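Backbone-to-sequence.
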């Protein structure tokens, strides 16, 4: 698996919306303790304490220092998540709202799925606490990974064709 990951992703660099910084894919496996489960370290580096490693089954574990959470099913899912930012940022209007906790994030996902805004979930760009929704003129990103490890509250970011639409979508969660 290490060879596959190094060949496919090694050296990849881009600006990540998920990590909110430039990322560098430099996967290595340096087992220190034979009793511990193997993982691919430094799969994603950011130049800050945040980053990601891969478990033996390819799950992307994101974290800061030793606080971490399994988030994406694969590196491809993380890359798909980041590619959605490219699409969303083409919309001229934006807005952000923070939620009180992870339980509110789950409720927000249900509200978006039931809303009249015709937004569809983009599962290939999501994770355990990360959700993307897209529509004809709007994108919604719900982020709870950093909250799951105790660093910041979950958030909802909206990009749309105009500020009124952004405000209507955000009002759904108020």
């Amino acid at each position: 698996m290490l060879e596959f990951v190094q060949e496919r992703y090694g050296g990849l660099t881009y600006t990540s919306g998920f990590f909110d910084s430039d990322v560098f894919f430099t996967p290595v496996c340096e087992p220190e303790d034979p009793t511990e489960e193997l993982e691919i370290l430094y799969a994603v580096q950011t130049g800050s304490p945040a980053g990601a490693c891969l478990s033996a089954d390819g799950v992307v574990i994101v974290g800061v220092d030793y606080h971490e959470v399994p988030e994406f099913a694969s590196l491809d899912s993380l890359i798909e998540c980041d590619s959605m930012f490219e699409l969303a940022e083409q919309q001229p209007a934006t807005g952000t709202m923070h939620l009180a906790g992870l339980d509110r994030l789950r409720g927000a996902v249900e509200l978006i799925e039931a809303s009249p805004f015709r937004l569809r979930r983009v599962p290939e760009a999501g994770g355990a606490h990360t959700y993307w929704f897209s529509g004809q003129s709007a994108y919604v990103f719900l982020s709870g990974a950093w909250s799951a490890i105790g660093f910041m509250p979950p958030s909802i970011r909206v990009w749309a064709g105009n500020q009124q639409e952004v405000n209507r979508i955000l009002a759904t969660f108020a």
